[in-house]
Each structure stands twice: as structure tokens, then as C-alpha cells.
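Re: your question from the hallway

Yes, I did run it. Sequences:
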Amino acid sequence: MKILVAVKQVPARDLPVEPAPSGLWIAEAGLSYEMNEPDAYALEAALRLKESGGGEVVAVSAGPERVQSVLREALAKGADRAIHVAAEGEAALGLDPVAAAALLEAAVREEQPDLVLTGLQSDDTGTGQTGVVLAARLGWPHATLVVAIEPGQGAVRARRELEGGWFQHVTLPLPAVLTVQSGIARLRYATLMGIKRAKTKEIRRLEVELEGSRGGLRLAGLAQPRRVRQTQFLEGSAAEQASKLVEKLRFEARVL
Amino acid sequence: MSGILAILERGPGGWHRMSFEALAGALELGRATGEPVTACVPGFGVEAAAAEAAAFGPAAALALEHEALSAYAADAWIEALGALIGAMAPSWVVLPHTYQTRDFAPALAARFGRALMADCTGFVVEGGRPVFERQLFQGKLTGRFLFETPKPNFVSFQAGAFRAPQAAGQRAPVAVQRADVDPARVRQKPEAPFREAAQAVDLSSAERIVAVGRGIGDEGNLELARELAAALGAELAASRPICDNGWLPMDRQVGSSGQTVAPKLYVALGISGAIQHVVGMKGSGCIVAVNRDPQAPIFEIADYGIVGDLFEVAPALIEELKKSAG
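Structure:
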């Protein structure tokens, strides 16, 4: 089975982000980037499908030059090839899922895979729509929140996570798009050999004309979130913080 | 084009609790824009449900009926609602941001060349237009968004964004309409939903919970959290990534894909506070957050915050609790 995995490069999740002076995106100076975690799980699922059933895994990412580093990472983990869909500016941010899906669609149409996997949402813009909109644009069936994948004859049976601890199996004809839930399988690390091998693998660059493929969402401003509760911050050394907290929990909140 | 179409969700057990919160959001959008709200219930045999929804403030209620809607399948929902929206031409389509909405609504909106304004926490009216707010960067920032497309536009509201309305005395008229959907075109073949073996741990009845997130760093460090939980007389829980890693079983997960809890005391250790986690614990009586990132969204909902290294704070807490117990 030929599988295309769409991965997004996002700002590293452990680092603080600040609005840019324009208020229309974040300040990018000094940011470091990583592979969007749900996409890392989609890649893991694709690599396992290839290991058990054969085929090819092609990683694709849309964005500026820097996204090539997540493609290298995918190649180092075992993807066979990669496609970099060149995109700059607002279209590359993924704020508008229709634009994001249109960029990826170009790669899918060229590659004609049996299956497209991607994470269920991104850690930065979090619209959770790109995979579903991609399927709609391709005219392919889709399923979301997938936690297990069983390939079949011309079809795929996916286990979907529902809310409140429920699950459901759904069978789709191929080609199809699945969006993968975090935790589908334990993530692998790239081996030294893998990293070495990745250097010789191909990253093809694809230029795409977007032509009005926009879903109409416009970011008008970014701000620090409002606090819901008045947080009392406890200062001092760890021992002082601990002693203040225990006192507050006992006498103020009365929960001990 | 006019009107607001609120799409309500039912499961095998009845209403999804977020349906009425989304209806409240639609009603508020209606008050802001002067547009009437129609509450739509897709399904099979949902006339009584639509009649029930009619008592919660909409101008009309609609049962959108078809055998193909008796169990959820994405294509069936997209076809049926796509045809309805095409015919009704509403200005706005409002949905609860449930797992089901996440599965079909992006493709429904895409049918109309639109993107869904997903997972909104609310809206404000500025210059006569609603400006929608949604979280970005795992809740670290709030984005204010406008639609720049003509109507219809599609919005989904996050759990808790609006308080479910009270039933009004008056019942709006209820219509039953057969959905326009061809079952042969539904490509997803769903099987019956099922649960994993019964949950071994019922966190919802715990009085105190110590929950760990990514900040715990390594499986071996869980022992520290266990000791703190023991010192507090608390159950141990975790955010999703910890369970994804297999460090704790899934039945200890708190959040949208795990359990919803409301203990007297919730201590979040190294949990950033992504919305998927927060929806499962924000009802807790007293929330303590320990995180080294002062910007972590968990501090927005915490009563007591400690910005610091949990590997120093947790041992100090254990020490302090032992001291005062002894």
C-alpha cells in the first residue's frame, strides 16, 4: 500500500509564544520548531503499516524552507521519500484549513496514494480540519480520531475513538483519508543509521498555485488569554512554596 | 439568506450534553444579529427530540429524518445537512464542537467553499459583526477571528462556551422533514460502538486527585507523583500524553478522551493545560498548578499556582505534608 503522510511543522510546544507586534501572528524570532505530535503518530502508523504489509511511505509538508527539517526527520524514521509543498506567508500557517488542504491536495493528486494519514489536529492552530477538508476536496471518504488501522482488500477498517471511553469500527473503501489520534502506537526514535540514510533520500519541491482556495477565516488579533480564576501565585524557595500551599489548602481552601 | 441553523446531536443514550450549549450560543448569536434560530435534529425517529428542543428558545425546530441517519456516518450527515443548508440558505450554521462534529462539519463547510470556525469559546460583536474567539497554541494565546466569506458561515462552540438555556414556557413549531440522502452514496460502513473492558478506576468519585503531565519527563519519575498522591490521600491521574506513552493505564486519563472529574482538590503537576485536558477537570473545587512555564494555560484556571520545578516542589510538598501530619 502506498501511504502519504501529511506532517506539519509547529513551534516547539514547551516554549513560550508571544504575539508579534502586528498582533496578527506570533513573534517568530528565536522560535524553534518540531513535528506536530499528532502527525508524528500518523507517521508512526504509516511506518507500521508498511512494515507489516509492504508498500511505500511518502511524507509531505507544506510551508517555508524550514519545514524540510520535519521531512528529514520523517525520512530518518523510515519514510521512503518526501515532498515539500512550498508555501510562504499566511497560507503556510494553517490558520485557514481550506488553504492548508489545497496545498496538500496538489501532492496527493500527483502521488495518487491508496491512503492518506495525518494527525487529527495541529498543536499550533488546532483547527482539526485539514485532513477532513483534504478528503472532501479529493472526493475521498474519511474517518477521524483513528486509533487503529486494519488494511483490507481495497478497503481499510479503522477503529475510531468516540467520547467517554467509547470506540467504533468503520470500514472505508480506498483511497481514503484517516486522521490519527495521538497514542495510536508507541513513537519510534530515528536511529543513527536512519539519520544517515535520510541524507541520501529525496525531498522533492512542489510549487502550487492557490488561486482563491480560502475558507474565509481571518485572524483579526492575538492576545494572552483571560484568566478564569484569580490565581494566587506562591513565591519563594520550593520549601517556602510548599509550606505556603499546604497552609492555604488547609485553612483557606479547606480541602485537606 | 437568513436565519441561524443550530445542529443538535443525539447519541444512542439521548442528547449530547453540548447540544443545548450550542443552542444557547446560536440563540445569543441570534440576539446579536437579529436572526431567528432553527434547532435541527438529524436522525431517525427524532420528532419527539425536536419537539423537546423546541421548548428551549428557538423560533422553530426541525426533525431531519432518514433511515440513513439512524446511526452516524460522516457521508450521511454531510449529504443530509448539505442539502438542507443548500435549500434553507441560512446565514449561520452553529454546531457543538463534539467528536462527531469534528468528523463531518469540516467537510460540510468545505462543500460550500467555507472553513469551519472550530472550537470557539465565544464571540463579541464589533462594528456590527461577530468576532469569534478561539484558542491557539494549546491555549497559550487567544485568537480573534472574522469571517471574510459571504454567508452561510459555520461555527462550532467548545464545551462550556455557553450555559445551556432553561426550557421556556413556549414551544416553537416543530417540522418534520425527510432528509435528502442516498444511502448508496454513504461510503463509511460503521459498526456498533463499544467500550473497552469496564474501567478499573473511577476517578469521578475521587475527592482529591494528583495529575501528572509531560512535565514529569520520564516514567521513572511517576514514583514522585505517587508519593505525593499518597501523602494527600489522592488518586493518581494523568493527561493524555502520559497514557499515550503507556506510563499509566488509559483509565487514569483525565480529559475529553478520558474521564471528567470534579474533585475537591486537583493538583496538576507539569500539566500545561491544553483544552483537551482542561475540559475534563475545570469543574474541580480547588485547582493547584505546578509548572515551570509561567505562561502555561493551566494557570488561567488554577486557584493556586507555583511556577517552579516540580522535582523540587513535589518533594517539598511531601515533606511538608508529612511534617504537619506527624
